[in-house]
């Protein structure tokens, strides 16, 4: 009977994979072990569960963008994680993989005018709801990142953006859902949605950068960097800026 006396001599945590290097102190042989610490796949159901997430909530310019993704039951990818934890290069590599292998996915942009009308929280949720309604097949359950409810206490916001029909409101109200704090780092479908929301929104900001290059949206993506706020002070606002956000000159002195 073989007996091993193993001792860990080195390890590496790379994204969601743990690499361990052991040495058998009896034989002096090295043993390399790879352990996948993958995101969990399902929360409420085991099939047709969609994850949804948004990007651009804290920006001064550009849309809030939401994505919804239904992944197949056998989907695995060792690099998939919350988009904020990934490099731009990794996100761009993951996007076509998610698009090609997803059972269904959808992306929705809600413009600054709508954000100003219904506020950024309602706009973020509404963008997720619009994305859910685009999915085919219809999901059996919904999980979203954060602690905001998928259906607000006051009911679905049916102004600004798409005006939902009674049938669509019934669909949204009927699907079981759960809000999960840090869900984009816990569940694959939410992580996949975060990648699509981020990359699609980045593409959008790159396009409108060509129209107003002085704000450098290609670099800052509409976030309140010092450069962006100073450009607003110098050139004023555009149709892509959110007028209900803190944009006044005296407020631009704040380091955000």
Brief overview, please?
With 256 residues, the protein is α/β, with parallel strands linked by helices.
Write a structural description.
Endonuclease that specifically degrades the RNA of RNA-DNA hybrids. This protein has 256 residues and is an alpha/beta fold. It has 2 domains: 31 residues, no CATH class; 159 residues, 2-Layer Sandwich (Nucleotidyltransferase, domain 5). A 5-stranded mixed β-sheet has the order 6-5-4-7-8, with helices on both faces. It has a 3-stranded antiparallel β-sheet with strand order 1-2-3, with no helix packed on it. Helix 4 links the parallel strand 7 and strand 8. Helix 1 packs across helix 5 and helix 2 packs across helix 3. The longest helix is centred in the C-terminal third of the chain and has 22 residues. 36% of the residues are buried.
- What percentage of the residues does DSSP assign to strands (E)? 15-25%
Broad structural category: alpha/beta
Total count of strands: 8
Succession of helices and strands: EEEEEHEHHEHEHHH
Please count the helical segments: 7
Rg estimate, integer Å? 22 Å
- Main sheet overview: 5 strands, mixed
Distance between the termini: 64 Å
CATH class of the largest domain: Alpha Beta
CATH superfamily (homologous) name of the largest domain: Ribonuclease H-like superfamily/Ribonuclease H
Low-confidence stretches: 249-256
| Inertia-based shape | globular
Name the CATH architecture of the largest domain. Answer: 2-Layer Sandwich
The average pLDDT value, as a whole number, equals: 85
Largest beta sheet: strand ordering:
6-5-4-7-8
CATH topology of the largest domain: Nucleotidyltransferase, domain 5
Percent of residues in helices comes to: 25-40%
Could you say how many structural domains there are in total? 2
Binding site for a divalent metal cation: 53-54, 145
Keywords: Cytoplasm, Endonuclease, Hydrolase, Manganese, Metal-binding, Nuclease
EC number: 3.1.26.4
Organism: Flavobacterium urumqiense
């Amino acid at each position: 009977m073989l007996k091993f006396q193993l001792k860990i001599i080195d390890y590496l945590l790379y994204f969601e994979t743990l690499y361990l290097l052991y040495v058998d102190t009896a034989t002096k042989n090295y043993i390399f072990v790879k352990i996948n610490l993958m995101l969990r796949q399902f929360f409420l159901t085991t099939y047709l569960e969609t994850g949804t997430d948004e990007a651009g909530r804290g920006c001064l310019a550009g849309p809030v963008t939401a994505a919804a993704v239904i992944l197949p039951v056998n989907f695995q990818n060792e690099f998939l994680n919350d988009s904020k934890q990934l490099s731009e290069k990794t996100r761009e590599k993951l996007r076509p993989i998610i698009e090609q292998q997803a059972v269904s996915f959808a992306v929705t942009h809600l413009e600054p005018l709508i954000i100003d009308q219904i506020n950024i929280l309602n706009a973020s949720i509404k963008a997720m709801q619009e994305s859910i309604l685009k999915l085919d097949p219809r999901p059996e359950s919904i999980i979203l990142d954060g602690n905001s409810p998928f259906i607000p206490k006051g009911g679905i916001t049916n102004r600004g953006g798409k005006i939902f029909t009674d049938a669509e409101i019934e669909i949204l109200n009927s699907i079981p859902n759960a809000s999960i704090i840090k869900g984009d780092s816990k569940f694959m479908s939410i992580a996949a949605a975060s990648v699509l929301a981020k990359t699609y929104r980045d593409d959008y900001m790159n396009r409108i950068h060509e129209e107003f290059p002085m704000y450098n949206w290609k670099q800052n993506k509409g976030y309140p960097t010092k450069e962006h706020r100073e450009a607003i002070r110098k050139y004023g606002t555009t149709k892509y800026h959110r007028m209900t956000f803190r944009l006044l000159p005296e407020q631009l002195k704040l380091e955000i």
